[in-house]
Amino acid sequence: MKSRLRTRGWFETVAAAISGCLFLVTLAWPDWIEGVFGVDPDKHSGALEWAIVAVALCATVVFSLLARGEWRRAQVSGAKGRP
Q1: Which regions span the lipid bilayer (predicted)?
Q2: Closest alpha carbon to 19 in 50, 49, 64
């Protein structure tokens, strides 16, 4: 039987991937904001970078859990034969 994932599940999966990439990039290269945008909003204190790491980590966890629930819902409804 074929399972069908709702658009919401795809959105949550993509959002988890994007926030996970943002987390890893900011953790590995903390000065990317200065390099990409040419501004230094926290005057080299690193506070903004750590805030981005924390928010991106939280977003990754939340979106991953939501996506996991959608994928499981799709598997269960596919196994029962529901659309």
Answers
A1: 9-30, 50-67
A2: 64
